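All the exercises in this workshop are built on plain-text protein records. A record pairs a protein's sequence with a compact description of its fold. Backbone structure tokens are a discrete shorthand for how the chain folds in space. Once this layout is familiar, the rest of the handout is easier to follow. As an example, a complete record with its sequence and its structure tokens follows.
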Amino acid sequence: MVDFALTREQSLLVEEVRALVREKIAPAAHRFDRAGDEEFDFSLAALLARDNLLTPTIPREYGGRGLDYFTTALLLEELGAGCAGLAAVVTANIHAASPIILAGTPEQKYTYLPLLTRSTPHLAAFALTEKSAGSDIGAMESLAVAREGRWVVNGAKDYVINGGVASFVTLFTATSPRNVRGSMLCLVVPQGTPGLKVGAVRRKMGIRYAHTVQLLFENLELAEEHAIGGPGSAYLLLMQTFDRGRALAGAIGVGIARAAFEYALQYSRERIQFGRPVYANQGVSFALAELSARIEAARLLVWKACWLIDRDLDYTMASSMAKLAGSRAAVEAAALAMEICGGEGYLQGHPVERYLRDARVLPLIEGTDNVQKAVIASLL
């Protein structure tokens, strides 16, 4: 039976996080956006670490909150509405922890997961994308070679959120260049491992709080116990991580969309033109009405996907639908909000201008919109 009523615990969490966003996170979001990508400031992450919300999906036995995906989506919607960059930081932590939770050894779980549950902020990174391998994972060029009981890794990963400040990196690489998917290996790389180097800082259009870098692996050596599973098992693990993560990306999109919608609605009711609020024009009010329906539809798709994930039912299509709908809602809401606000919304430093820049990344990450369509089409 599907129940749309939140539990008492979920309602309390939403209230607490919404208050935190309103009082501390949202007011700081503009400052971090203007500061750019060069340095990472842990202060916003610390606000979440204080309540053990930086990686909320970590099970309780490893010190985590043990939140299910439905509740995590509620959290990420609130963070997306206040600071999408912070939401991206949390999502990167979740992605980095997910393979360890799903397939790690007991030693790996007790070594790495508790790091992300401390009251002082610790971050992790998920390293997959390469210059030559975005949507086409099979074009991956990084390579791990077995040598005397150790793995030796060479290559580069790009667009790695948290990569420059991570306590550990969850790395996906190939062990055979002729069969990338079939030979894929997942490795946990602790901070400070010789051969792990931080490359260029990526200066982004939006989500600037999420520090994003290139990572270089130069003859990096790891003992076999750093491998999560064996060669060839990591592709399935990657797909499981992606299928779960796409629903959460959709939740961030819903948060951005909601923030843009609420700003535009209030502005349209207060802005007087030709002697009446611009909301009195059906061209504005009808557009907002339609947008409201689209945001609600995206939210329900996110909820359905997370409901399926939490019950370990078939969630692949639902998660892609949620991601596609959430991304579109965010971009459409921010664009409409800018149109309603006019020239004011186009100015640097205006909230609507930031919402639009933040929203534009969503159709690109976790699989592009066309990748989501391909996934959905393959399952029809």
